[in-house]
Amino acid sequence: MVNDAGAGKIRDAILVVPGIMGSELVDTESGALLWGLRDPRWYLSAWTTGRGLRQLAVTDEELDGKTGRVRPGRLLRAPAYAPVLRGSEPYTALVRKLEDACVHPCAVAEFAYDWRLPVRRTAQFLADAAECHLRSWRGFGEGHGDARLIIVAHSMGGLLARHFVEDLGGAAEVRTLLTLGTPYFGAVKAAVILNLGRGSPVPLPRKHLRTLAATLPGLYDLLPRYRCVDEHGGPRLLTDADTAALGGNGDLAASSLGHRWSDSPPPQLRAVVGLNQPTAQSMTIDAGKVNPRNFLRGADGGSEDHSGDGTVFRLSATGFTERPGYLSQQHSALAKAPETLDLARAVLTERDLGPPLGARGVGVDAPDLVAVGQPFTVRVIGGGDAAGLGCRIQSAESHTQIARPVFQRQGDEITARARIPAPGIYRIDVKQTGASPVSCLVMAAPADDLSLWEE
């Protein structure tokens, strides 16, 4: 039965599209879950030993289009961790918020996909799923015959969705495309991942990430597509030859999305953009090694830190939209932050929330990998008074609090020291008065196994 109670309920169909690593992946033959397990110990084992990751590598047959060995399951129901990327948070809160905003929960569907594969190929599957869901919703009860489609997409999911809208005919049926931290012009971090360990030792989990990532066409679709390589003659584009020299696959780079989006975005597009987090925006390449920089240099030689969400810098995530919403938050947590959920509901119901989300807030700089029992530093950017900041570290599995580090100002820096007592995946929350916590994931690995810390 359709729920007509309450004003401003959404009557359109909604499709939720996650980001990279945001969908469960399943072995088609055995039914075994390959990605998206609830047990944090699996991620600890996989990234430290490499076991469990080999089945995720894209094979030559899959590159030739013979897919089906691996199939998508559901959207994540628990945090999934990866070094450098930090992984993904579950989309449960986002889906529930959207269901509450609709006349019936069946208006909301999830599009899980194989994030290893190319964006262009997966966008075709998205087009099919969108048509199917919209047709189903129009036939659900009465009064939905003229319903259109709303897409809410996080990270890589926004690339799929925009490709569907602009290039696959989706514009005719899509009323609103709301993207959260989508790297429309790529992210320097993708190049950093392909280059991990070139020219210097890296912890073993990052080595395993590099080995896996080099096989994933989807990762190459996230490479930066703007003038991000800083040279003496000025900034230039990253080339396919650069990518191969950095440790990637030149053929996969050449066949990647490489999309140059129009500077006149589709009228359906709205974007939520993460800000204030330390974010790589440009890089130098010295003797085959990538050195990321948290600023962008202009043609005049001047530099500016545009900030971002820790993965995608601000200008890449706006997609040339005229009225982006800004939020101080890390990339993986954008899709679950209360401010994002409120903005999504306001945009989709066309109900004004008042002043738009602002750029004020704190940034958090914390390691993605720490040694059990060893002290590490959590640094706050733009925090003002240390007394107005709080920090909590909790288990990502049980939500049990294991530490409450205290921030102190030392000169120009606000920092806190912390230790994690046992191996696992943990969430660091930093809260400033009047805002929801800025959140990031960290993996704690045994300190006595030196093979984890040196290549």
UniProtKB/TrEMBL annotation:
SUPFAM superfamilies: alpha/beta-Hydrolases. It comes from the Bacteria. One of its GO terms (molecular function) is O-acyltransferase activity. It holds the Pfam family LCAT. GO terms for biological process: lipid metabolic process. This is Lecithin:cholesterol acyltransferase. InterPro entries: AB_hydrolase_fold (IPR029058), LACT/PDAT_acylTrfase (IPR003386).
